[in-house]
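User: For a benchmark we're assembling, each entry needs the component sequences followed by a predicted structure for the full assembly. Here are entry 17's components. Please fill in the structure.
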Amino acid sequence: MITLEDIARQAGVSHSTVSRALADSPLVHPDTKKRIQDLAREAGYQVNQVARNLRFQSTRTIGLVIPEVSNPYYPKLIQQVADLAREAGYSLQLHLSGADQAAENTCLASLREQRVDGILLVTAERGLVAREQVNALVASGVPIVLMGWVEDAEHIDMVMGDDAKGGYALAQHLIGLGHRSIAILGKPSHRGGYDRLFGFKTALEEAGLALSEEMQLVANSDAEVKSGVIQLVGLTAPPTAIFAYQDSLAALVIGHLTDMCVPIPQAMTVVGFDNLDLATYICPHLTTVGGHIEPLAAQFVNLLIARIRKTHPNTSPQRVVITPQLVVRGSCALPRRESSITKKTSSPGGYYQQLPTRNTQETSR
Amino acid sequence: MITLEDIARQAGVSHSTVSRALADSPLVHPDTKKRIQDLAREAGYQVNQVARNLRFQSTRTIGLVIPEVSNPYYPKLIQQVADLAREAGYSLQLHLSGADQAAENTCLASLREQRVDGILLVTAERGLVAREQVNALVASGVPIVLMGWVEDAEHIDMVMGDDAKGGYALAQHLIGLGHRSIAILGKPSHRGGYDRLFGFKTALEEAGLALSEEMQLVANSDAEVKSGVIQLVGLTAPPTAIFAYQDSLAALVIGHLTDMCVPIPQAMTVVGFDNLDLATYICPHLTTVGGHIEPLAAQFVNLLIARIRKTHPNTSPQRVVITPQLVVRGSCALPRRESSITKKTSSPGGYYQQLPTRNTQETSR
DNA sequence: CTGAAAGCGCTAACAC
DNA sequence: GTGTTAGCGCTTTCAG
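Assistant: Structure for entry 17:
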């Protein structure tokens, strides 16, 4: 790799003159400046940012820690963050904390060693896993912004979607349509899961609706979604609507219901959460809440950059809350006629039991 | 930020002793070593990788340049690459080259300045946009591996999926089912698009099937997919199958067909390419080709790491080609009866014209 | 076993 | 205008 010294030798000047010339400093004679710049270009000189970073005590790099990227929620976030960071003149160091939550610690430690100028941490689950690392970071003055609700972290900047309001809006919509028997299904470890359910249940309670145990299902995998759906449909009194609190799970629910020949939305209403692209890929299109990711990403980055630039040196920790909007699409309908349930449920094994199963065999060759 | 010098002062030794102690060198007395290590831990010392990088002339970081991340193909790739890089002890610098292809140049220049140890470049379109940058990189000995077919780049390592074979396999499958009138639809700028079509057309030709102009549609956006689907369905003799050469486009095709009440696969067979997660989210599940991403990512990273470590100092440029496998799911069926077409097409406006349109109104509040 | 000193490549005060 | 020099924090000879 070619250095300032190399150019200096060729130009017959000192390396500081070269440095100045390449920085377009007015302190160097126009002629020499031009000569040096030409020389550097021809030689293909590229400044060594590592040396520069050491000198400046700054890397113009921000670290982004994300649980994973296969969940389609995150790519949308990454895209936004990457674009905003680039516009602000920062590179992005990406770390996936992964399912193994101890990795969050390693990621943060690594970013700290790399002397990134700031850190964006998307918490994987409710609660902060790498608490000591984060506190150490804060203590040593490294700007850090969290995404997602975290308790006992009043001293840290945080942005989050108002998952509770989103859940509340969905429940209200379903209740407004006339649904009285609603099931919920999801992955409890999901970051916003708790609040999504909380808001949803609040609306149910306000409407005087009870939520029995058998209507609350846990699904951490596609297999569990499937068995959950089978279980719900097999009930003597199946729900008329299902709230899957992530779009990808809702998509799977719809897939399994369709496999079981349960028409959507006529026989079952399904709603999701996040309004990911896949919400309009599936059929029928998914009713969900969304629009929060973009502003969330924007605030996430802006807050960090502001801290890095010390625009607000000692302002108290910020809290940014974005409320998602209801997006109504084809996966919702009025509840199926109660009478039809009452009639059918007299036969043992549940309402849908006698329906044929669609062939979903899959082969690979 | 606390430095070696700080610890040295506290311990009453020189900074070089501290450096040795923290590197667990046998050259330092066990007692002092222990004392220094304890001191460093308590003080929360973290080595400054920037200084270290300057010293070692290596950053243990690799750059990943990807066109975008909203196309669901890429997240899958990122996840694999990130995991493999971490396992090999490398951090990942992520750059999105974006739609604006001049940005590819900027990304590469930036990575070079940052002195990453190697670069993984996923080309955005057929052909290498930032050719001079890449050549400069190669010339200065920076390891770089390309993903995607690129012409006139014999001197560079490259990995790619065998898009032509994938297209060929899909066509053969459709032909085997009895389809004779097949349309293709896609985004021509897509990296593998050309080869996917080439393989597909080859199989058609071998089977003696012609592909008229009206059966070849370009769709760069959802709107164009929609108008394309409408156009196809409105033909006097509509195709019996559609090959959308990206899964996401195939999903949109299925969505629009369903909106138009064209039953899939009974009235229309649809196939995609890549076997992304969304292929099983949609209904019916998509027949596609896949399984290439994972091995591709593995070879992508392994090749680069091998170059960085100079395992094969001067081996000739490598070519890794991964053949995708056919994945048969529910979106394919035998072609609809020809007789039914012949009868119906007598009515003006095309076969499907009289079908009602599903309500797809979307509201937000 | 430990310390002094050089040097990675760069910028910026400080001479001249 | 330009050169000399120090120093960012670290590792690693080279002396002792």
